[in-house]
Every structure is written in structure tokens, then in C-alpha cells.
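Checklist before submission:
- one chain only
- standard amino acids only
- sequence pasted in full

Submission:
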Amino acid sequence: MRREQLAADGALLFVTAVWGATFVMVQDAVTGFPVMAFLALRFSMAALLLLPWFLRASPPARISSGRSLRDGSQSLPAPRHEALRSAATGGGPTEPVPPTRARRERWIALRPGIVIGLALAAGYAFQTFGLRFTTPAKAGFITGLSVALVPIGQAIFLRRTPGLNSIVGVGLATLGLALLSLNASLAINLGDLLVLGCAVAFAAHILLVGRFAPGWQPMRLAFVQIATVAVVTAVLALLFERPIGWPPPNVWFAAAFTGLFATALAFFIQSRAQQATTPTHTALIFSAEPVFAGIFSFLLIGEVFLPRQFVGAALIITGMLVAELWRRGGK
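Returned file contents:
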């Protein structure tokens, strides 16, 4: 196994643990406080935290020779691709660019982050509205189905077929999610369909980060997607939630804590780590989020897993180990 990929997967596992650790805090914060308003506050704080680094990493008004910037594709002709990489990474200015063109190319450099942010915001929106019509357990499982959707998307859209190790790992993790989350009520309703949209959106988010991360600065990618989510959730809060007063102290603390660790730091690490690992590995590692949530729920509030949930957690961990340690043509 390449050390770089192992380090990237370890960083993503740390992110997953952070997300799992914040479940209890977020649940307490949104009890009596609108969810979209909380998300807008959380992502706005995260965007403000990253803003100084984003401004420092902004592309210069000078780029190397080339005609225009289009996207982060590896298939661009060499001059345009070099111009893109210069704008995305802040390197190698050689030729002055007119102000109007510089502004246009700065805007083009933001587009991947905006698209990624829209996918992430859609995931949160579908999940939030879906929870009005379905149970948290079913929502947790259906959201986790993104672990099965990512390998399909990776094969279709990124032309990278997952190896047998990843496929087996995904199968074990999906079965583990079912045991961890589902109960006897399996009837499908509107909420389930909305949360399925959440799973599709989160899978798209992982795939898009995998697509664009190798050619863009992690800080820029993290900031733009976070700022996009902040704007979208603020608009949704204004449209669909009742006006609220000043947030109480526990909401401010939860928004600041999750904004720093579970948002700004987490999405920066994801943007950096997915330069060295695959979307399928990322989705598989993220499937451990409910396992960490259960561990921290036990430590913080004494919540205990049922026997079948222990089996589910063990299957998720086994799936991750299979994908990491069984390297037979895997991607």
C-alpha cells in the first residue's frame, strides 16, 4: 500500500471521528432551534475562519501563457492547463493579464468549489426535510447508502473501476449500516425518498471532490464550498423556517465548535486527502461515522448499542479493513 494513500485514509478517518463526536452536541443545539439556521451559522463561522487563508491563496492577476481557463480537467491542451493550474495553485506568474480577464479567470477558478458546495448543501437540505417524514434510524441508513452509490459513480463518471477489495468492503459496510440503523418498519414513504436524494447528493459531493481536488488548492476548494453551503442554508432558513431570536449560548458554542473542527478543518482535510485516495475509499471510511457517533454517545450520555448494532459496527470496521489491507487490484 502506498504510504501517501494510507496517510490520506487515516486523515479521513480522523475527520469521520470528529463528525461522529459532534452528534450529541449538534442534537442538543437543534433541539428548539431551527436546523437550517444552525447550519447557516455553523458554515458562516467556518467560512469566516478560512477567509484569511483563502484571500492569501487567491490566484494572482498574472498567469502563464494560455488563452482561457475552463475547468480542472487533465485533458486540457497544455498551455490552458498550465494556466489553470497556475490560477488554482498560485504559481508561476509570467505574463500580465488585463483586469477584466483576471476577474473572469478568478470566477472560473471558483466554479468547482461552488458546484461541490451546492451538492453538499443539497444533501443537508434533503436530509433535513426528509427527517420530517421518516425516522432518524431509517434516515441514517439511507444516508449511508452513499457508500454504495460512490463506487457506481466512480466507475461511470470518473472511469475508475473499484477493485474487488473495495467492492467487498462496501458490501460489508452497507450490511453493517442496515444492522446499525434499521428496525422492523421498512415501509417506504416521502421522507425516505427525500433522504435518498440526500444520499445521492452526498455521493456526488465525494465524487466531485475526487474529481477536482487533484488540480486545486485544498484551502480554496474548502472555503468556496463552505461559503456556498452558508449562503444556501441561510436562504432556506429564511424561506422555510420561522423567524428566531438571538441564539442561546449552547447554540453559539456548538456552531463555533463544529464550524472550526467539523467544518473548516474537516473539509480542508477532505479536499487535501482526496488528492491521494479514491472516492470509494473516502465513502467507505465515512460509513464509520455512526460507529463513532455511537462510541461518543456512550461516553458522553450513556447511550448503549443493541447487540445487532454491535454486529453492524463490527461489519463496518471489517469492511474498512478489507478495503485497506486486501490489496488485490484495488483502487
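Reviewer check: The longest strand covers residues 62-63.
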